[in-house]
Amino acid sequence: MANEQSVIAVIRAARPTFRNAHDKAAFAVHAAFLASGFVLHATGPSASVDDALSSSSTDEVGIDHWNEFEDSYAFVYSQPEKSSKKVLVKCLAMNNKLLIDTLRDGDNEPLYLELRQLTSFLYINNPSVEDYIVEDGGTNYNTQFKNLGKLVGELNKAILTKYTGSPMPNSSTQTSSSEKKGLNDQPNVERQPDYPYQPAGSFPSG
């Protein structure tokens, strides 16, 4: 299961170029999938076509064109050690939010996670991308993110454990270095939104 250290290791190995905070957040999502044992089969335009999920190709690809679109990202993965079924991940940037939808081949419903504006009551555990990203973090990837342990923990709970079947790690293993220093602590308010969530994007049918 992914943790802060394994995600940063993936990001450093890939050495991506980021344009903005949404790029950083979307790539952290991608890195969490790789750190959880998934392999990448398509990204960018090739992952956005209608038959991306049903394609028979099992070739592993690099990250070329992953952020070619201005406000959306797409990735197709599989986890060969556990299942041949592919998983389509779509991220949509909206203002300071990143909407994350995932669909596994054969599943009827997608899974989702929303990183959005922090409010007094709604989605208190899903803050905006700025709560995970340092805009002027320099060239060191480690300093371009903050609270990464929280982000990885949310991904593990909402999405990754559903596909890997792995139990949630000990809470101590999901605590980021910045959290250990007491930075950006937020109260844990449990309340569901007063309106239904609408998925970020449509997935291919069938």
TrEMBL record:
An example Gene Ontology molecular-function term: endopeptidase inhibitor activity
GO biological processes: proteasome-mediated ubiquitin-dependent protein catabolic process
Superkingdom of the organism of origin: Eukaryota
Domain PI31 proteasome regulator N-terminal: 15-163
Keyword line: Proteasome
Gene Ontology annotations for the cellular component aspect, listed alphabetically: proteasome complex
Protein name: Proteasome inhibitor
Organism this protein belongs to: Capsicum annuum
